[in-house]
Predict the 3D structure of the following.
Amino acid sequence: MPEGPSVKKFSLLASPFVGQVVAKVGGSSKRINLQNLKELRFQDCQVHGKNLFLAFGSDEREIVMSQHPERGQEETALEEVMGTGRDGITLSKIKGQEPKLPSTDNQQQEAQESNYLEPAEDPWKWLHFHFWLFGSIRANEFARARSANKRGDWKDPVPRLVLHFDGGGFLAFYNCRMAWCSGPTIKPTCDILSVQFHQGQALEALCQPRPVCCILLDQRYFSGLGNIIKNEILYMAKIHPLSQGSHLKLENVESLLNHALRFSSNWLHNKLQGKRLHYQIYMKEVCPLGHRVLKESLGPPRGLKRLTWWCPECQFLYT
Ligand SMILES: [Zn+2]
């Protein structure tokens, strides 16, 4: 399943199309009536953990990027990750969208007033995307077959949804589930890539009397954290995946959380620069120190078990 940094990258591919109107719709999805998207304006794009939310609707609501409070925070977070600030290249410039600045006092007042004018009913429809195991988004290109199928045909993957915009570009969505919803419901305080991530709440969650490998994958506390991040940060913090959270020392818990935040933002940074991530333990036979790595499916007794890699020499079991 694409983890937080991958979905964040998908949102960066989609964001430049915010403000454009859907001119044509294609794709294989039968789950929603794709034609309902036609002629709607793409109004907003938000990522929460492993979930992407796109808003479509009429022009009743103001969409000036620089005046959208939630977008402002999102931009700041991404700028931090990308090492750019207000004086550097801002996200809106990367997206080719200059913030609209009112030129006269009158216009400025109008713009400020419109900021507070919220319609009685939200005119936007939100489409929630979940990317299964191998879902992805392409901008202005289609995915191509990487190998031949069993019959020897080179068949390109079929997109679930293709949105052609009035600006001439398009977005293609692959291997994803789509559903209409009333809007993003996941709190940014539990999103590991959000500037609003609540570290105190996360530290408390990590001290629960459960195996730490299960706590880390609990999306109620660590939205966006997936199996790769889990394996890598447990190795970096030198903690055995079956250690009970309640038996960890405060310094262990703090180290684990720091690794989670640093690893996730580094991963996103690498993705944005087109670099691949080098894993230390995930899917490895030996650890960086040359010890033999163990692999087992671990999880709650009745819950989903996930393949876990760990080094019995480097990682300590706290019981
Ligand atoms: Zn080792």
In short: Residues 287, 289, 291, 311, 313-314 surround zinc ion (CB under 6 Å). The beta strands are 22-26, 41-48, 51-57, 124-130, 136-139, 161-165, 170-174, 177-181, 294-298, 306-310.
